[in-house]
Batch of 3 targets.
Target 1
Amino acid sequence: MADLLALSTKIIDSGVLDQPANRIINEISELAPDLAVVESFSHAVTWSSPEGLVIFDTGTYDNGAHVADQIRTWTKAPLHAIVYTHGHVDHVGGSGPIAATLGTAGRKLRVIGHENVERRFTRYRDTSDWNRIINARQFGGVREEHGYGLVSDSSQVGARHPTFLHDSVLEVNESLGDFTSMKIGDDTVEFHHARGETDDHLWAFFPDRKWIVTGDFIIWNFPNAGNPQKVQRWPLEWASALRRMITQEPELLLPAHGLPIEGKNRIARVLDEIAAALENLVREVLQMMNAGETLDTIIHAVKVPDATLGRPYLRPMYDEPEFIVHNVWRQFGGWWDGAASRLKPAPDAAVGAEVAALAGGADVLVRRAQKLAEEGDLRLACHLADFAGWAAPDDPEVHGIRAEVYERRRKAELSLMAKGIFAAASKESKRINRR
Ligand SMILES: [Zn+2]
C-alpha cells in the first residue's frame, strides 16, 4: 500500500508536483484502521462502519469489479451503503459490479445521493448518443501523458472513459436535500449539498472524526467549472462550498480524484487557495460584464496568475480558466457573445466561401493558416483554417493542412478539454484528406 498522506504532504508543503497526483491504478491504500481509498477513475473512499462498508463513489463500470476485489483484500465486511457524491458516470458506473461482488449479507443496500441525481440520470438517458459523442471528444485528445485527472495510461485496466450510463447503475434509494445528518453505527455523518461541478453534488463530514469527503469539489486540477461541452457549472457556488468546508475544520480530506490531504491547517490552506482562485476569476468577469464589455474583450483580458496555476492542485490540465470565463458569462448573461454579426449569423459555409474568394481561394487561405501556425499564432491560424475548410469541404489538400494546423494546436494546449476538441478537429479533416 502506498502512503498517500505522506505523498500529499510532501507535494503540498514543497509546492512541487514531481509525480502524478491523479492515479487510476485500482489499488487500495489504508488511511486509518477503518478507512481506505481505492484510487480509480473516481476513487472509492471506503469506510468500514459497524453496520458494514460505506463506499463513497464507485469508479467506472469497467473498473467496478477491480475496485471491489481491492476492497476484499482489505476487509471481508458486507456492503451497507453506496454514496454518490454526484451522478457523473465515472462516480456511479461501478455501483452494480461493486454491489454484486461485495454483497450485503441479506440486507437492503442503501444507495444515497442528492435528489437531483435522478434527474441527471433521466437526462443522460434522453441524450445518450450526444453524451457518447461529447465524451469521446473530451477524452480523445490525450495519450500517454499523466496527471490529467480522468485519464490514465492506456495499458492500465479500464483506462477507457465511460461515455454512457451503464444499465447496471443502481438508482438512488435515499434521496437527500440541502442538509442531512444521520447516524451510522455510533458515528454522525453530515451530508451537505452544494452546486459546483454539478447541481447534484453532496459532500460529507464526520464531525467526531473530522473526516471530510469532498467528491469533485477537490480534483487536484483547476476546478472543472468551465467545460465547453457540458451543462452549466457553478464556480462561485463551488468556492462557497469550499469556504463552508473550512469552517468544519476537517483533519482529513478525502477527494474523489487526486490525493487525500491530512492536517487542519494544510487542508484549510488548500481549500482557501482554490476558493480564492475561483472567486477572483468570477469577480473580474462580473466587473467587466457590469462595465458592458463583450465576451471577446473579457476572454482576452481576464487571466489567472501563473503562480496560482502552478500550484500542485490548481494546474489547468483538465479544465481551464478561459472556459470558466465563458461559463460565468452564460450563468449571468445569455448565449449571445456581444458581436452583432453573431446574433443571427450567415451559415459558416457562406462566410468561408466569401472569405476564401476574397483571399484568392481556399488553398491560399489555408496556406496562410499554416504560416501563422508555424509562427506561433495558433488562435488566428485556426480561424483561417476553419474558413478554408468550410469553403472547400471536400478538398483533400485543404483539409490535410487544416489537420496539421489543429494537430499543432492540440500539442500546444495544456488542458485535456482543449486537446480533445482540437484533436477531434484534426481527425475530422484527416478523414477528408484520406478520401
Ligand atoms: Zn469526477
Target 2
Amino acid sequence: MAGKRELFLKHVAQTSNLSMMLEVSHAEGMYITDVRGKKYLDFNSGISVSSLGHRNPDVVTAIKKQTDLYMHTMVYGEHIQAPQVYYAQLLTSVIDSSLNSIYFLNSGSEAVELAIKLGRKYTGRHEVMACRNAYHGSTLGAESLRSDLDFTSALAPTIPGIRHIDFNDFGQIEKINEHIAALIIEPVQAESGVNPPAPGYLDALRAKCDETGTLLIFDEIQTGFSRTGSLFAYQKYGVLPDVLLIAKSMGGGMPIGAVVTGRQIMQSIANKPSLAHITTFGGHPVCVAASLAALQYHLNHDIAYGVDKKAEILKKKLKHPIIKEIRNSGLMMAVELTKKKYLKHVVSRAIENGVLVDYFLFNDRSFRLAPPLILEEKHIDEGTTKLIEAMNFALQVYS
Ligand SMILES: Cc1ncc(COP(=O)(O)O)c(C=O)c1O
C-alpha cells in the first residue's frame, strides 16, 4: 500500500518542487512534532500565523464551544451571529474610532480583493497603487499588484490601472495623484526581506493621500496582532490608514481575514449595486470564535509588550561572520547573509537541526524569522544555537 508521502506527492497539489515534506503528527506551543517523533522549534509560525503558538488553549476551547452551538447557518450578513458581533465590538474598541466597521472574509487575499473594490467604488477612480516587491496575495486582483513582470506576464492580462512606487522612496510619493483610487501598502514590507518604514515615510504617504483623495490602505496581514510590538503596526508608527487589512494570525490558527474601515467607506459595497461583495464562508462562526479568543489573549496577556525585548535578545544571541545584517520590526525579522550562496544551506541545515525558518519571496540573501510571540529565553537559546550551527555548516561547505 502506498505510504502517506507517496500519496501526498501523487494526489496533493504542490506549487513548487521544494516541498519541505515534514509529516506532521501534532503541534503544541512553540513546537511541531513529526510522525517520527522529531520535534521542530517553530521560528516561522507558518508565515506569521501561529503568533500565539500552536493550539493555544483558549482558542481550542472557544472552537469546541462554538461547534457545540452552531457552525455555518447562512451566508455573510444575513444572520446575527454572536462571535462576529462580539469580535467587531472588541476589535473596534482597541483601534482608532474611525475604523469602526469590519467585513469578515476567509483569507488575506480576499481582504485585498475587497480593498481594491472599495477603493474603486468609494472614489469612483480605477487606478490602484502598490509598492514594488510587495506580496498581497494569490487571487488575480491581488497578484495584479505585484511588480514582478516575469511572474505576472504568465497571468496576463492582469487587472488594468496598477501603478507602482518603491517602498521608502520619498521622491516617488509625487506619483500619487488624483487618478489613484487607493494606495495598498504594508507598513513594514515583508517579502522584500523585512523593510521597516523610514522615519516620516508613512506620514508623508498619509499627507499625500489626504491631498489627492486617495484611500490609504494598510495591509497588516503579516504585521497585525502584536507581531511588530504593537497590536497593529499603524499604532507603532503612528499613522492612521483609511482601511486596515487583517488575516493570518487573526484566527489563532483558523482561516479568516477581514477588512476594517469607516462605516461610510464600507457602505459603498452595500449600494449601487447592493451585494457588491459577498462570501459564503467569510466570518465562519467557528473561525470568528477562535479569532475572538485569540484577540482576548493578545489583550489580556499583553502579548505585544514583550515583543521588542525578545527581538533584541534574539538579535544579540544570533551573531555569526556570515550575517551581514538583521532587519526587524518586533519579531518580524530578516537575517541577511554576506553571500546568497549560503542561504539554501543555512535554511535546510536549520530545518535538519530542528528549527523551522523560511525564505522570502523577493530576497535571495535573507532568511525569515517570525517565531510565535510567546517564545521564552530558553527557546531563543535553542533556536540561535541551532541556527549558528547551520551557519557554521554553510560556511564549511564553501571552505
Ligand atoms: C502581506 C500579505 N498580504 C496578503 C497575503 C495573502 O494572504 P492569504 O495567503 O491569507 O490569502 C499575504 C500572505 O502571505 C501577505 O503576507
Target 3
Amino acid sequence: MELLKEIESIVHNILPSDTQVTKIDMEGPEVAIYTRNPKSFFENENYVAKLAFELKKRVHIRTDKTLLSEQEEAKKKILEIVPEGAEIKEIAFNPVFSEVVIESIKPGLVIGKGGETSKKITLETGWTPSIVRAPTSPSDILTGIRHHLNKNSPERKKILQSVSKKIYRPIEAKSDPWIRLTALGAFQEIGRSCILLETPQTKILLDCGLNVAAAENPYPYLDSLSFPLSDIDAVVISHAHSDHSGFLPYLFRMGYNGPVYCTAPTRDLMTLLQFDYIDVSLKEGKEPLYTEKDVKEMLKYCITREYREVTDIAPDIRMTFHNAAHILGSASIHLHIGAGQHNLVYSSDIKYGFTRLFNNIDLNYPRLETLIIESTYGKREDIQPERYISEQRLVQVVGETIQQGGNVLIPVFAVGRAQEIMLTLEDAYRRGALEGVKIYIDGMTRQASAIHTAYPEYLRKGVQRRILQNDSPFTGSMFNIVKGGTKERDELLKEGGNIILASSGMLTGGASLHYFHKMAEDPKNTLIFVGYQGEGSLGRKLQNNVKEIPITGEQGRTKGLKINLRLENIEAFSGHADYQQLTSYVRNLKPKQRRILVNHGNKVKTVEFAKTLTQKFHIPSQAPHNLDSIRLK
Ligand SMILES: [Zn+2]
Ligand SMILES: [Zn+2]
C-alpha cells in the first residue's frame, strides 16, 4: 500500500533508531506502531504528539510480541502494581493488539498520576493497558459486548486492516467532483432515518433506522439502491435510538461488511435496543428482521470515535462527531467532502436547552455549507414550557394521584427520557417532595442507566462527579427494580401509591403496555407522557382522546378496554429542541450555512419549518421527500 510506505517514512523521520520500531500497521483510520523499547516513548512524550500531528491520525504505540509476558504471570503483576482502591473487575488479554483490557470502577487509579501506573504495567509485563470503566451497577449487556469484542480481536484486526485499505485506496482526481444526497427515510416523516451520500468515488450512509411505531413502511428505501450493499464505504450512526440505528444489523444480514462509525455509548446502547427489539418481536409472535447473530456481527465492525475527533472514513471524506445533547453519546455529524469542496452537518436529533444529563450542544464548526436539520417540534406553536415548571408539574401530578390511592405510569424511552425523569424524581425525593412514594423501574431502563455510568465523561459535570464518587443518581435507594414477570407487576399495582417507569415509551409493547392494560379502567390512576408519541402508536391515539381500545382478553377473545385513567402530557422533558430552540440553533450555528434541508418531522412541520427558515434567515431551505436526490455540488 502506497500510504503505508509514506507513513513508514514519516515515522522513521520522527523516531530515532533507539525507539526500536519493529512493525507499522494500519488499523482502520488509525496507525499502530510496534516497538521493542516502549520506555523510549515514555521518556519522550512528544513523539506520539508529533506523530499524530504529522500523520493526522490516531496513533497507538504497541509493544513488540517478543516482550509480552505469559498471561497468568502478567495478571498477577498487574494486581500487584495497581492499588486495591481501583476495584479491578476484569483483566482480559488481546495478543493481536499487544493489549490488556483492564476494567475497573476507578480507572484513574489504573492510569496513575501522569500515567505512571499504566506505564509501569507496560514496562513490567510487556502488555499495553486499555483501561475501561466498569459500570457502577452490573450490566450483563455491557459485559457481553466487551467479552465479544475481546474474544473476536483477531478478526477485528483483520476487519480494521481491510477497512484501511478501502479508506486509503488511491482515487483518480475528477474534473467534475459532484456530491449527491439521497433521502432514504425520515424525510417529511419521523422514523427510519437514512441518508445516502455519494461522490464519484464514495458511498456513505448516515443512520439506518427502523420505524417501530409504523405498521406500514417501517424500513428505509434501501431497495431503491442500484448497487449491492457491499459497495457502501461506511455507515455513520448519529445515536442509538431505533429510528436511527434499528435497521443496521439487517444491513449485515444482507451483505454489508464495512465499518460502522459511532461513539462508544452509541455502540453499547444501540446493541441494547436491538436485542430488545428481537426480544419484543419474539414475545409478540412476530419474526424479527434480524437475529442476535447479526447484531454480534455488526459489533465487530464498529469503530468508535469521540466528539471532535477528525477521522478519515473514505478516500475523499473526513468525518467528525459533535455533541448533540439529545441522549448519551448522541452526535451531529460533520462531513468534510473532497479537498474542501463541501462541508455538511447532519444535526440528527438535537436538544438546545437545559437538560440534567448533558453538556450544551456544539454550535461551532470549522466549515459549513449545507445543514440537514431535524424538525420534530418545527411548528410555530411547538413551544415547550420552562423545564423547572414541568418538573414542578410532574411532582404535583404524582402527588395528587398518590393521595387518592392511585398509581402513576410514565412510559419512557429506556434511553434518554428515563434517565432525565429519574434525575428529576431523585431530586424531588431528596427534597422530601415525594415522601412515602415508591418508584419502580421496569424494562430496559436499568441496563440503559448502567451504561450511562460507564461513560461519565459524556455527562454534565454534576452527574459525572457523582458517578466518579460511586454515588450514581440512577441507583439511589428510592428506586426499586422490577425483575419482570407478570405476578410482581400485578402485585405492585394492587399496592397503590407507586410511580412506575417502564418502556416502551410510546406504549407500542413491552412492560409499559402491560401496566397500561391493567391501569386504564381505574380513574384513580394517572398516565403521564413525557416524550414524543409517534404517529400510529397507542400513545398518540390516547393523546388524541380515544375513549376505548380493543385488547385481546383471557381466552384470546377481543374486548374493549375503557380509558378512564387521568392523562397528562408534560413536555419539557423532551430530548428534542422545541420550535424556539430549533430556530435559535440555526441562528447561532457557526459558520453561516448556505443551504438547509429539513427532515425528521411530519409533513406539515418539515414544510412549514423550511419556509420559516427561508424567511427568517434568508437561507434557501427545503423539505425534501423520501427518495429525492439533491445535488450538493
Ligand atoms: Zn433520537
Ligand atoms: Zn429520531
